[in-house]
Specification:
Strand content: under 5%
Distance between the termini: 14 Å
Structural class: mainly alpha
Largest sheet: none
Number of helices: 4
Order of helices and strands: HHHH
Shape: elongated
Length: 138
């Protein structure tokens, strides 16, 4: 007998796990190198000061939390969990793109998140279909 996790496409779980790994890695880098948060916008910011470190740590914590949630969702394969944490990432990608456009930093800063956004929207659409399929069986 098939369980609900059996009807979740393998590619979805793999891609979500890859996004999880990226989030976790970026989260860890925020603790190791607080300047990673500021990348090209560090002019006028004291990267050795507490304010910059605390901002980086908050950013790192968010990335770690989202990454761990994505990893748990990918490993467990529960459609609702995958959908919810992927929607969180959708909004983060949208924010990244909006900030890039507002700061006139259009280019890779918009293109890469747009590709990730498209993939995440495909995952959400796929998972909604899985949930509907499951609900039709019950």
């Amino acid at each position: 007998m098939k369980t609900i996790t059996d009807i979740v496409p393998r590619w979805v779980r793999i891609v979500v796990a890859l996004f999880a790994f990226a989030n976790i890695t970026f989260g860890i880098s925020g603790y190791v190198d607080p300047s990673a948060l500021f990348q090209n916008y560090s002019t006028g910011i004291d990267l050795t000061g507490l304010a910059a470190k605390y901002a980086s740590y908050e950013f790192a914590a968010r990335n770690l939390a989202v990454g761990l949630a994505l990893m748990i969702a990918a490993l467990k394969g529960v459609p609702e969990s995958i959908t919810i944490v992927t929607i969180i990432r959708v909004f983060i990608e949208l924010q990244t793109m909006i900030v890039a456009v507002l700061t006139n930093n259009v280019g890779v800063t918009v293109v890469v998140p747009a590709v990730f956004l498209a993939l995440k929207l495909l995952i959400v659409k796929t998972m909604v279909g899985v949930i509907q399929q499951r609900d039709a069986l019950t």
